[in-house]
Amino acid sequence: MKTKDxxxxxxxxxxxxxxxxxxIADTIFVTRASVWKxxxxxxxxxYEIDAVTNKGYRLRRAxxxxxxxxxxxxxxxxxxxxxxxxxxxxxxxxxAAIRYARENRxxxxxxxxxxxxxxxxxxxxxxxxxxxxxxxxxxxxxxxRIKRMTDITAMAACAVAGSIDELIFDGRDVTKIxxxxxxxxxxxxxxxxxxxxxxxxxxxxxxxxxxxxxxxIFAPKExxxxxxxxxxxxxxxxxxxxxGTIRNELTISIVKKLFNYCQNSSENNCLTLYRQKSLxxxxxxxxxxxxxxxxYAYVTGIGDDYHLHVRYENGKEGELSSGEVSVVKY
Length: 330
Ligand code: BTN
Known about the structure:
This protein is 30% helix and 26% strand. It is of the alpha+beta class. Helix 2 packs across helix 3 (32-44), helix 4 packs parallel to helix 7 and helix 6 crosses helix 8 (269-277).
């Protein structure tokens, strides 16, 4: 581990507390000059570090620590045995998962501190600034009985929404799911999910699914880009939330819940939660036909297969298996 990373680890472990340059140097067996150099380098990467004479250094705001060994151990204790791979920076964790799947068999989790080419649905990009969000992909080879892609997509949405409620809001029902799999809080999107499936015609056993999950946890240092400001939110908005381990906790909870839903898919407790959290029920929506044209309809509910049930303006009933809709405000 580089000196800079060891200094950062120490500061993160002592978030909020001042550590003198000498005590840092003694703990990691380097000179004070190396500590100073490491601090400068961390500051240039955007870490906000207070430096006070006679006190030392401290991270200004709780920096969230991702500990892949801890995540792996916790999942293992729950009976889920899979590698957890962490990157300081990667193009996209979905891409990392796909590259891994081409070379390896088996499930795995990929987490990044930042993504340079985070991907969203329909070819959009996903804004992934450093340290303020959870960017993760879960690679699964579905030996569990998943019949449809919409099922796994909905299960991921329930796992994310349920985990945010439990870990950030003490179990209160705060999150909403906007069909198909966007998570909203107070009309702002706080999480998006991109599910990709790969089937090998020659080797059916090597079919796999990559579930990419992005959660905005803290406000980005430079705020969201202009085009996202009206629509994007964070799960900690308005809260003083400084656990320092929320990305670990969210990852563990999301993976556990997802595996639970997959293994007990017949019990359908995901469907109940999905319906309870459905943002669109009872709303008028605009349905993007991706032809430059839109349909308008009233949402009547979610079907057993997670299809969106609607009533069109001409009174006809219909259902959508996939697509993109937005609420029409009158
Ligand atoms: C969307 O809202 O359109 C889906 C966004 C999915 C973003 C996540 S972040 C982790 C994973 N890696 C990616 O490149 N995309 C997904």
